[in-house]
Amino acid sequence: MTRLMSGVFAAVAVVAGGYALSGFNTQNNLPQSPLVGAAFAQEAEVDTTTVAEMTLGAEDAPVTLIEYASYTCPHCANFHNETFKKLKADYIDTGKVKFIYREVYFDRYGLWASMIARCSGPDKFFGISDLIYKGQSEWARAGGATEIVDELRKIGRLAGIGNEQLEACLQDGEKAQTLVAWYQENATEHGIESTPSFILNGEKISNQSYADFKALLDAELEG
Question: What is the pTM of this model?
Answer without folding.
Answer: 0.84
